Amino acid sequence: MNSSNAIGMVVKVLLLALVAWLLPVVALVYILFGIVDVARHKNIDGALLKSYFLGNGVLTWLLTPFNLITDLISGRNPVIWRPEDFSGEHREEIEDLLKAFDDNKETIVSEIGKQMEGKKRGMVFFKWYDRPGDQSIADFNREWKYIKTIGVSVFNAKEATRLHYGPVRVTVRLLYNLNPRKSDDIFLEVDGKKYFWHEDPLIIFDDTVNHRSINGEDWPRFVAFVDVLRPSRFTALQNAMVAIVAACQKFNGVFYTNWTQMKMKGQAKG
80-261: which CATH topology? Predict the structure, then answer.
């Protein structure tokens, strides 16, 4: 641990101690919420607890009331999802979107690939929590009831994220590899288990669980980046929660500061 990380850790510990002293009941409730939340992991060790309560999982911990309410209105959460876990119109939208990506992947890979020289990671958002983004692909511009975010994430050669946690789980994350190749050095790791793109290009998971994405090869990796509303009888309430997330528009910038924000045509934004 370098000095800046050590200082940051000390500051977090002191802040938590101050909150526990000033608001002991609130602190106790949050500790209990955090224990319930982190217990969803199958592989719990000291490193996981440290990262969740004192590292990059702190925001997820702070949002546990929001997420636990989501769990109550959304039913089961298997962490790793399959298309058959969705039914009716919900599943039809997922299948329609995957077909749209298949129909447009050559254009997507070509247009974004031209902008990736000298960059580590790139991201294009066609839709962000129901708010329109890049409108250059007509197939993505229709009305979607359950699809809340549509994007493409690109990792250049030898690029990876560290283990981290998504903030909210009113949606689940769908990732669909647009250029899979046979290699065990390109994978997604969720709760300690590796999922290889060449075995299945589609992975749907609860991204508030500890995870990371690795591209250990010498070519770029292009992945469709999608948020899908969880199955629930309370879709209207879920949409209200999505609107709250969308109102915090800076989330987009905060969580993707390590990505260059791009558009399909023209210059990258950053």
Answer: Jelly Rolls (2.60.120)
